[in-house]
Design goal:
CATH superfamily of the largest domain in chain A: Response regulator
Largest interface: A-B, 53 and 53 residues
Order of helices and strands of chain A: HHHHEHEHEHEEHEHHEHEHEHEHEE
Number of helices of chain A: 14
Number of strands of chain A: 12
CATH topology of the largest domain in chain A: Rossmann fold
Strand content of chain A: 15-25%
Shape of chain A: elongated
Structural class of chain A: alpha/beta
CATH architecture of the largest domain in chain A: 3-Layer(aba) Sandwich
CATH class of the largest domain in chain A: Alpha Beta
Oligomer: homodimer
Radius of gyration of chain A: 25 Å
Largest sheet of chain A: 6 strands, parallel
DNA sequence: GCCCTCCGTCCAACCGGTTCGACAGACCTC
DNA sequence: GAGGTCTGTCGAACCGGTTGGACGGAGGGC
């Protein structure tokens, strides 16, 4: 059942049906009614592939995710769900493409087969080859996270350096003198993962300004690693009284380690950082932390992308978000 | 840059290029080499929409997910990632379509616009309208979870009734006499969500067989609810010494409630159930539980779907998985 | 040398839409 | 009543692939 069938039954030409549907040229009321009746009766819907071919656009976005093997964090999952949601408000579909590892076939297929109108990249490295690939292919894209040259593309990100700085000041104001940053994994840092690097430098700079003694550790994205990591911290720097973290996956392990060490939060030890809000609230006690506004970021990313698709030559835009630190109950005055 | 351009530069007709690419007819070695050179030089890749239109298939699957507002559980997330992964091994792309709430436009668009070759449905209700819709549209589909009439479609599921039964026997063997099932939310049960209903009936039947006193409660999919729910259990049935659960989201709250009540696991209280393996291991202590094999299920679902797409008239097949209970450390002998 | 086969290639139709230019007829104007 | 505009519709080209039938030429059998 195609547009020709509808045209035949309504006694008009194919183009008239097309115009009736798109409204791009006027159609008499009587004809429109006849056409709509036939369409309703037959349950006709235009074939998406044919339309995409003719229009030169697919009404589809690609969301490039890290491969499943590397488990997604809560923040990342928030992005996926929210991007799909935001795209739906523009009547766009979302194609999920793994990239990295041996999954670059999917990425290539999507990029080069004109399968989508635009791409949203997440888990961006400071110098990301996929960005170069998309630029070369001149396919509109927006990144969640940003590469080193901030003017080179459209992006949305949270200002990790600034948020971590605020965390440090918050702890300093509470009297803490020895603090530690629990970062993401070694591998990510080595690969040039922006948030990890920006968090680290923001942390050290702010600690320096306030005259604090600061240490940083990398911790694999797993609960068990969080436990081991904290025990190492206690062993190497027993004087530390507060931690800042951006490693969500390590939180359960961290929690267990704290209990195991008999430390009360925030009585004996304070914790803060940049964390998905939902996760911060399920910590015990709820974490004082900057919540990553995944939903807002996803919405912004999709809006930026839609804009770029409409006008690929417009200047790049970006949004650097700095959500307030939500004061919950995991930080307190130092009294050891 | 299209197939005509390649043909021109290689000095052959468009069809020859097509045949060289698909291998559906023999092409002389010399011609093939010339064509491949031009293709490599220009970085040509066939336009996916045009190919889809001509071939009548899109090489794309749709994965229908619950809307983002209803947060995805860990098990569900495992499905999404694993389905994408499994589809990639068949060189298929995955379109993510929210359904339910006000997102049925996406579902309709995908189903009726011939946008995909097949659909994977998750979060199936015992009597799911989407199943009927897909049948009517005669679009191949596979469900993760199964509707009431098991022969009506192809599906893969875990045998919740059986697994919960095993959990009950396990607890009974340990001497527990009063147990409770912490189920998913009221709404899901009311909507006819299969796992919740099958878990419940399996639980009650098994408890009856073993002569145990059994209670069931529904608990919203949130940590806070888990806490409240456990406190209610302690209040209403203080004699209960063990819980079985399929509610992952409630686990953190449950954990907090146990600590708050000063209960040692498994010394004072045992917990088991059907849970994503990763989550079971991040509980403290690690949960003795049947791990939902999300990866295997996703792989099976994709395989079944690919099979159905190839031969839509083949009889329906299904897989009902019964993973062993992984013995960890959250269950012990009753001694109160 | 003739006929048949087979191999490699080409032409043209087709998939199902969109869109541009043309045009018939109604209506207005002078 | 001739000429001009406006409205609604149609025909045909086009998007970029795939595919079936036709066809020319090389090679083999007689």
């Amino acid at each position: 059942m195609n547009i020709g069938e509808i045209a035949k039954r309504a006694g008009v030409s194919r183009s008239t049906v097309s115009y009736a549907l798109s409204g791009k040229r006027p159609v008499s009321a009587a004809t429109a009614r006849r056409i709509n009746e036939v369409i309703a009766e037959l349950g006709y819907r235009p074939n998406a592939s044919a339309r995409a071919l003719a229009e030169g656009r697919t009404r589809t976005l690609s969301l490039v995710i890290p491969p499943a093997s590397r488990r997604l964090t809560d923040v990342q999952l928030g992005f996926v769900a929210s991007v799909v949601e935001a795209a739906a408000t523009h009547d766009l579909d979302v194609l999920l493409s793994p990239s990295g590892g041996d999954h670059d076939r999917s990425f290539e297929r999507v990029v080069t087969g004109r399968r989508v109108d635009g791409v949203i990249l997440m888990e961006i490295l400071l110098d990301d080859p996929r960005v170069a690939r998309l630029e070369q292919e001149s396919l509109p894209f927006v990144t969640i996270g940003h590469v080193e040259r901030p003017g080179a593309s459209s992006w949305v990100d949270v200002d990790y350096a600034e948020l971590i700085t605020r965390c440090v000041h918050h702890l300093a104001d509470l009297g803490h003198r020895d603090i530690v940053l629990i970062n993401r994994s070694d591998e990510l840092v080595a690969a040039g993962y922006g948030p990890a690097l920006r968090a680290s430098s923001g942390f050290l700079t702010a600690a320096g300004q306030r005259g604090l003694t600061a240490h940083t550790v990398c911790c694999p994205d797993e609960p068990a690693a969080g436990l081991a990591c904290f025990e190492e911290i206690r062993h190497r720097w027993p004087e530390v009284t507060a931690a800042v973290t951006i490693n969500e996956a390590a939180l359960p392990g961290l929690q267990r380690a704290l209990r195991h060490a008999g430390l009360d939060v925030p009585g004996d030890f304070s914790i803060t950082g940049v964390i998905a809000g939902r996760l911060a609230e399920s910590f015990h006690p709820p974490l004082t932390a900057a919540d990553v506004p995944a939903e807002e970021m996803a919405r912004l990313a999709v809006d930026l992308l839609v804009e770029r698709i409409a006008d690929p030559d417009a200047p790049h835009r970006h949004a650097l978000l700095r959500p307030d630190i939500a004061l919950r109950s995991s930080t307190g005055a130092r009294h050891r």
